[in-house]
Amino acid sequence: MRHYITALMILMSLGLSTMQSAAAGERVVVIVNKDNQQSLSQQDIKNIYGDIVIQWENGKNITVYNLPVDSESREAFSQKIFGESAQRVAADESNRKITNTIKNPTKIKGARLVAQLVAKNPDAIGYIPLSMLKNAPNVKVVLQID
Amino acid sequence: MNISGYTDLEYHDSSAPGAEPGFRLHHMSLFFEKRITDQWRFFSEIEYEDGPFIEYNYNGSNVDSECEGCYGKIFLEAMNFTYAWDPRAQFRGGRFFTPAGIWSIDHYPPFVPTQLRPQHIREIFPQVVDGVTVFGTLPLGGMFVNYDIYLGNGEGNPGSEDGNSEKATGAKLSLLFPALKYLEIGASIYNDTQNDDQEKEAIGAHLKLKIWDFTLQGEYATATNTPVSGSSFDQSGYYAQLLYDIGKWTLGGRYDFYDAQENTQSESIYNSVFVNYHVTEAIVLKLEHHQVELEDPAAEDYDHTIGSVVIYLGN
User: Fold this and answer.
1) Selected residue of A98, A102, A106, A123 to mutate for chain B interface (largest B Cβ count, 10 A)
2) Residues forming a β-bridge with B174
């Protein structure tokens, strides 16, 4: 038993040395279509991306866009909304998929495409880097993540 | 059709009598999921366990009825259709994981910290239900209520008809507190008249709490079994598991108790420590050590160590 505890201590120290910086430097904005009249709090956004709430107040199904798990913006979003890394949040969603408990899977697209799709779809929500907002007409910002 | 899956390779070492160290091709599971319309969905899982081998010998015009040298398991772990009428009420029919506690559902190796599950899982509540269920999520102030109510054939009746006219019934209720990082508390019940007419009534409770980088998870379940003749007996189990996430690492420990039949020296305790390294969100390396204490004085306590590589084949 003692050598397993020793091995665990070594692994813990390795973990400390490889711990990733949680904070990504990029500002991120959460966007919805400009025709979406529903106000959203940070908690609402967590409920939507956490697969708890899947419909808007008008009863329409929410189309949820996510960025690739290795993107800086997704890391910043995950840390702010869930308090966890993008990798952990992605693993939670994968778990819901194979346990057949997922209700509204997120769709993974690049940031530029997310801006375009949210602009076209009144039932969509997404997030993009702030720097991309000037090229994203027909969307409105519901939350800014610094 | 979305196709996904997972696979895992283990290396075991155990001081249990008769156990030899070795590799295990534990799982190769394939999931098929189809969103046929906005409301109608199909889901299935085919599991290949322990590298199954099945080959019948063909002798001229006959096939041998014996499958000599066959091993492993092929199992249709899930196959169901869902009608998602409303988030508050969805309907599912087919084979589905028994909605009971946490580990009965969240049990897949890529997303749990140990290859060994807590002992009472699948022993008190069954692994799967062949039947129908209604489930949904209801807002309740700042909280949400998840519920499942189901009706099925019961244990020992896989795939086809029931062995008796009584149906198994059960329910699970969970409260989610989304204002916190994660907090879920809940309870489960189950009732079944088994094929030998033994009555089984089970109840359980569960909790999962994430705070800072810690995750605390615990479950308790107990069942009263009443045979047609003889005395009724209880079985019970519980575990408490603490995880600590640090970067790509997860460190943890678990205390796990199970008594298969009260007053029969059948208690066993697993004291477990484990570490996971998450290479990516889809690849996990695990090392786990379990110290097993047995109540039976005729049986020796032993240790069990598993190293594993687990890969989720995402869709």
Assistant:
1) A98
2) B146, B186
The shortest C-alpha distance from A107 to chain B (Å) reads 11
Residue A11 placed within a domain:
no
Closest residue by Cα to residue B186 from B101, B267, B309, B64: B101
B133-181 pLDDT tens trace: 999 999 998 899 999 999 999 887 666 767 777 889 999 999 999 999 9
Q: Give the C-alpha separation, A96 to B297, whole Å.
A: 42
Task: For A60-119, give the DSSP string.
Answer: PBPEEEE--TT-HHHHHHHHHHHSS-HHHHHHHHHHHHHTT--SS--EE--HHHHHHHHH
pLDDT band at B230 (very low <50, low <70, confident <90, very high): confident
CATH number of the B85-312 domain: 2.40.160.10
Please indicate if any CB of chain B lies within 8 Å of the CB of A87: yes
B35 CA to centre of own chain: 25
CA distances in angstroms from B296 to A31, A108, B300, listed in the order given? 62, 54, 8
**What sign does the dihedral A107-A109-A114-A120 (CA atoms) show?**
negative
B23's tokens: 């590799």
Please choose, from the candidates A86, A140, A146, the residue with its C-alpha nearest in 3D space to the C-alpha of residue A118. Answer: A140
Domain that holds residue A92: 25-145
Q: Is A41 within 8 Å of chain B by CB?
A: no
Radius of gyration, CA atoms only, chain A: 18
Residue A32 amino acid letter = V
Q: Give A132→chain B minimum CA distance, Å.
A: 27
Q: What is the dihedral of CA A28, B313, B284, A88, to 10 degrees?
A: 20
pLDDT at residue A21, as a whole number: 38
Q: How many distinct structural domains can be found in chain A? A: 1
B20 pLDDT more than 50: yes
Partners of A5 on chain B (C-beta within 8 Å) are: 273
Contact partners, residue A18, CB within 8 Å, separation at least 6: B247, B248, B249
Contacts of B69 (CB under 8 A, 6+ apart): B53, B55
- What is chain A's length? 146
ipTM of the prediction: 0.91
What Rg value do the Cα atoms of chain B yield, rounded?
21
pLDDT tens-digit series, residues B266-298: 999 999 999 999 999 899 999 999 999 999 999
What's the pLDDT at B315?
58
Residue contact B106–A99, C-beta within 8 A: yes
